[in-house]
Amino acid sequence: MLVNDKHLTTIWYEKKTDKVKIIDQRLIPFELKIIELNTVDEVCFAIKEMQVRGAPLIGVTAAYGMYIASKENANLDFLQEVSKRINATRPTAVNLSWALNEVMTKITDLKEDQTSAKILEIANQIRQDDIDNCKKIGEYGCELIKKIYALKNKPVNILTHCNAGWLATVDWGTALAPVFVANKNNIPVHVWVDETRPRNQGFSLTAWELINENIPNSLIVDNVGGHLMQHNKIDICITGTDRTASNGDVCNKIGTYLKALAAYDNNIPFYVSAPISSIDFNIENGVMDIPIEERDSEEVSHISGLDENNKLKKIKIVPEGSSCTNFAFDVTPAKYITKLITEKGIVDANYQSISSLK
Ligand code: MRU
Prior knowledge:
By secondary structure, the chain is of the alpha/beta class. The protein has helices at residues 40-48, 55-72, 76-87, 95-107, 112-152, 177-184, 201-212, 225-230, 256-265, 286-289, 298-301, 351-355, and strands at 2-3, 6-7, 11-14, 19-23, 34-37, 156-160, 189-194, 217-220, 236-239, 243-245, 250-253, 270-273, 279-280, 302-306, 312-316, 329-332, 339-342, 345-347. It binds 5-S-methyl-1-O-phosphono-5-thio-D-ribulose. The site of 5-S-methyl-1-O-phosphono-5-thio-D-ribulose has 17 residues, from helix 2 and strand 11. Residues 53-56, 93, 162, 164, 168-169, 174, 201, 240-242, 252-253, 328 line the site of 5-S-methyl-1-O-phosphono-5-thio-D-ribulose.
């Protein structure tokens, strides 16, 4: 999507230098910095420390990470070890293990001198598929927005949580893809952007994406959604997911569950957008079995922003001696999900419909 009127994606392979490049998302919205990934250590750091984040994007990064490893050593045992290391960086988003598995299963019978080129081909394909799938999600989801607009003939108010825009994928995004497609089709939309503490992906990333695409939006702190719903100020909620179980339970950024409960109580449709690579067909009960990442408590106790000299600064916001816990995700039971928007169409969040996507 656009940044300062120029098209940009979150990750790409540059053929002439043989380098993988990413945007360091920790600096957005204050600085747009492109960096190279040159070693497996750098790939693991980028995923763990969230230079790249969002379920589909960490999957694509992992695939390129395997390419970077294979340039050093294309031995299968070595690559298996690297794959385990990359997989351990973040536990919740299933796209990470999905992408690593895509790579590993396709190289088992290859000679060592063929392996690296093949991994690059697979990584490039995973990247391109992600772009294509997210665009299709956008087209399917846009139909929902179009229907609401046809009924009310006023801008459609959409609530989203965290960042499930193009920065969470390669391009287009998942939850925001329908918004981008609607905007390109001149359907008037307005997005309520949840702050999404502790890391504020809503304020820093989603708002930045929408502003760059010239899409009307309002930033709200995390507890506002319920109030807006009671006063008919939200027509539809759309979020992404890091791992959806085969029973339709949806794991997404912490706080998604509470928004879904409020939407249910107010009869507001709650949609979840996701490529099929975000579905874990092996987990039958999302609430019980999806692993929830716990992150550094400093993400809760501190907050970053620009100081009076426009320098990025981290400040402490809790009393000395506080004990903070930091669960990064929660699970919304399937009964609160209106439907899932996938690249194969819009389906019910239940076992039967999800199995048909395999
Ligand atoms: O911790 P993050 O920033 O990686 O979390 C991202 C989300 O929760 C997104 O909503 C999710 O990955 C779906 S995005 C396409």
